[in-house]
Write a structure and sequence with these properties.
Length: about 80
């Protein structure tokens, strides 16, 4: 099973205020506590949750740094210099 990077995805959810995904994760973890014998179903739920976070991340607009990397003309310091 691939590493799901749950802690990184939880942090992304906090940064982007995706409370519905955090609530879903809470319920998945609670299910594990309540029914430890349901490991396979919970593993599947965690994979689906991880995929849902990945989809939301993919839908975010690019950061300013990413835009500058793809469009060097947007970096005003390179175009006009650094003098004020």
């Amino acid at each position: 099973m691939p590493n799901l990077h749950l802690s990184e995805k939880i942090a992304e959810c906090h940064v982007n205020d995706w409370d519905e995904l955090l609530s879903k994760l809470d319920s998945i973890i609670q299910s594990l506590v309540d029914n430890p014998s349901c490991g396979n179903q919970i593993k599947t739920a965690l994979v689906y949750w991880s995929d849902a976070v990945d989809c939301k991340i993919a839908g975010l607009p690019p950061s300013e740094q990413e835009l500058i990397l793809h469009n060097p003309a947007m970096n005003m310091r390179d175009v006009f210099g650094t003098e004020v």
